[in-house]
Design brief:
The complex is a heterodimer of chains A (about 475) and B (about 375). Chain A is α/β, with parallel strands linked by helices and about 475 residues long. Chain A has 16 helices and 24 strands. Chain A is about 35% helix and about 25% strand. In chain A, strands 4-3-2-8-21 form a 5-stranded parallel β-sheet, with helices on one face. In chain A, helix 3 crosses helix 4 and helix 9 runs antiparallel to helix 11. Chain B has 11 helices and 18 strands. In chain B, the strands form 3 sheets. In chain B, strands 1, 2, 6, 7, 8, 9, 17 and 18 form an 8-stranded mixed β-sheet that branches. An 8-stranded mixed β-sheet of chain B has the order 4-5-3-11-12-13-10-16, sandwiched between helices. In chain B, strands 14-15 form a two-stranded antiparallel sheet. In chain B, helix 1 packs parallel to helix 7. Classes of the chains: A alpha/beta (about 475), B alpha/beta (about 375). The site of one flavin-adenine dinucleotide (FAD) has 40 residues of chain B, from helix 1, helix 2, strand 10, strand 16 and helix 10.
Chain lengths: ~475, ~375
Amino acid sequence: MNRAFDAIVIGAGPAGAEAAVTAAAYGQNIALIDEQPAAGGQVWRTPTGGFPGKGDGAARAGDDLRRRVAASGVKVFFGHRVWSVLHQGGEAGRVFRTDALGPDGTVALTAPALVVATGAHERVTPFQGWTLPGVIGLAAATILLKSQGIAPGKRVVVAGCGPLLWAVAAGLAKTGVQVAAVADLSRRDAWLKRLSAILRRPSLALDGAAWMARTAFSGVPVYWGHGVRRAEGEGEVSRVTIGPVDTDGAPVAGREHSFDIDTLVVGHGLTTASEVTRLLRARHHFDRRRGGWIPEVDGSFEASVSLLYAIGDGAGVRGQRLATLAGRHVGLTLAGRPAEAAALNATIACEARFSDALADLLAQRPAQVAAIASDTIVCRCEDVTRREIDEAIDAGADEINQLKHFTRCGMGPCQSRYCADTVEELMARKLGKERGLIGQWTGRPPLRPVMLGELIGDFRYEDIPIPEPAPL
Amino acid sequence: MSRVFDLVVIGGGIHGCTAALFAARGGMSVALIERGALCREASGVNAGTLTMQMTRLALIPYALKAHTMWADAPRWLGHDVGVVVCDGLSLAFTEREEELLSVRARKRREAGAPIDLISGAAARRVEPGLGDNVRLAGHCKVDGYANAYLTGLAYRAALVSAGVTLLEHTEAMGIDQSGGYTIVTQGQPVRCKRLLIAGGVWIEPMLAWLGVHLPIKVLVNQLAVTERQSPVMRTVVGIASGLLSLKQYPHGTTVIGGGWQGVGDRENGGVALLPDRLIGNIRLACHAIPALKETRLARAWAGLEAETADALPAVGPIPGHPDAYVCGSVHSGYTSGIYIAKLLADRILGREPAMPLFPIDRLLPQPARAA
Ligand SMILES: Cc1cc2nc3c(=O)[nH]c(=O)nc-3n(C[C@H](O)[C@H](O)[C@H](O)COP(=O)(O)OP(=O)(O)OC[C@H]3O[C@@H](n4cnc5c(N)ncnc54)[C@H](O)[C@@H]3O)c2cc1C
Ligand SMILES: Cc1cc2nc3c(=O)[nH]c(=O)nc-3n(C[C@H](O)[C@H](O)[C@H](O)COP(=O)(O)OP(=O)(O)OC[C@H]3O[C@@H](n4cnc5c(N)ncnc54)[C@H](O)[C@@H]3O)c2cc1C
């Protein structure tokens, strides 16, 4: 199946769905692709499997967005996983081509413009035992809670940083899970310092305060300025130990606390999912506070590749409000309404100040990375430890792709999506180089692992377009 | 700046690294200039197949020697590049492929490759992972594969201990020929008595610095690798036309190649993969080894391979430029390159190579040939 559109949008979170709906409202022929079964993205993930949803603000906003998408005339490809993105054709008519694997095989779409709105990945900075079954991400816990109403365990410690920590803790407490403790890398004063910024955004201030209050009122012990030292267990996690950290996230001497648990939920902020723009060789720069490598965009969110737009958390972690605004901006640009798009700039600038105030809470803490113990696994797909990474650097690897070749780090199914941020930081620190000079993992397809059997579908041998034999 | 090396090699792929290593071991002072890190272009991203059944006829005697060298790599290189020696099969699924295979296997056999033609049933005894669709197979016991991404790690250690001056992340930008050779870089110029150009697909612009115009076609080969899977095959599998190469590594991943072309060029590298060709290549792979359908594609990439007009190597002295040499464009060069580069190192050291080189005079326009 081949289909041509005015623009393709990858990712139906707040950013991508808003861009699609806005452009379609002005008659643009838009394709919107997401591997999820419906629009909503991370923050407004749709409930599945008959779970009615929580009926809270997020669920309402998500339902509202889904209604708008349904009414918009946008051609949706939900349940489709984009595995290849290509910029093809001559100078005269270059088009983007996306290949997405859905229930009926792989679907190729083309369009002169491409909007990348692929969101963020959760960062988990490794600690001893983090790969044990029973240790899950805050993001994964959110997904369970939001889309299925399932609690991940019976007795849980929630650890890490950022607003998600508190949302998960509150969500778990509400579901009746026993939250043995909440450990926040940040100290309480780190939150208080940001209070004025948070107060400028009453809705979020309320949310945040409500989460913290809900957690506190449920009698859950809260450890400010604490991080996970180690998780232990035979075959699965059964015990976690936390201890104090300094303001940079590095462990410091002080009393440790251990808890017998069946689940540890942990996350250390978000990192940009910039695989598509990297695959298309757009220019990127490193910005720790924005979640890592982000595509360089102009005032219209257009990247260094013409008619390639990057919005939402994938273009710098800045939260849902800015994701939605950027989506609307790009939707108007696609519709040929630059003045209306520009009218959003003041609001965007104002929101950006708010998101800046929270950025550090979600950003990587270099001192925390530096403190990773030498026998701790860093690349979980290939079981590569910090020691092996250090040894490869000693053996002459001084650039990230070379390190990968020396160690297999990042060669597994996740293709470095989860370890890149940590490994690059370790390398930069050891070589005394600036983070941006370590290089980026070369972006390659598939964007997500895909089953070979699904990819090839049914075929006859005669129909394989085998090229001419090589010369003898 | 004042130092004059006996030999400077430009390009740290398999050809440049091997020649540098043997020249240094032969007593020369050697510097190796590499724009990036060692063996990160073709020599680090290739499929690592060490097979006779994809090797060009004229190269089979060299490939056989090279195969022995690879199998023995820990001894002369000092490091393991994950070489596995195993049986190889070249398959025919159709009548046309049967004909092609019969001719090619016979000719390669005549050139010295121990290839037997066996039935589909016999092929399945050699490789139980095959489907029941094979009509005929070329069976060769001299086959195997290496783990190409370990090449740089292995050579780096070997070169350092042989005393080669490694200038990584140093781009050669031109050659000054007034009194010996001086290689222009962004930093210090590098001076030498002898020069070896071993820049893969970039030998064309490098030779142009010397006024020598050798057209080099750039092939953009696509490759794919699966995630780890329990064993589904134990041999190297190809097809008669050469457009499939397939093997499963001991850690469980399977590399799928065969020279399907992607998008790229000398300036930008292997930029993009064409999904239809990727799917075509993978269909071929699953047609041969059906159990591959049950695994996931982890990554696909593309690398650049050089090809001369007659698809034979460019290895030998550079006409009109005393003590300057070129080494590259060896088809299936990962297999044969180590032996061919070693032959050239012999020549540079003033020894008679054990087998003929592939001088480039044949490929140059007439006036240059006369010069
Ligand atoms: C788990 C989690 C919970 C969060 N909760 C909150 C919260 O409660 N409040 C808040 O303000 N912010 C929250 N955030 C931050 C918030 O999600 C983001 O700021 C906002 O959703 C960004 O929107 P987006 O459209 O850029 O990306 P997302 O909402 O992440 O949407 C990206 C979409 O792209 C799709 N996608 C990506 N790659 C592909 C591909 N290759 N093929 C097909 N589809 C693809 C994904 O399936 C996803 O639906 C949360 C973030 C996470 C990770
Ligand atoms: C995808 C792919 C799969 C392959 N599969 C196989 C296989 O299975 N079996 C097999 O036998 N062969 C295979 N080959 C062929 C084999 O990889 C090549 O023949 C061989 O690696 C070429 O080695 P080289 O040293 O000539 O070139 P390269 O490895 O490309 O080395 C050239 C070096 O020169 C450097 N350079 C370039 N410009 C400059 C400059 N200005 N200054 C300094 N340095 C510079 C480059 O950075 C590079 O490192 C494959 C090739 C590809 C691309």
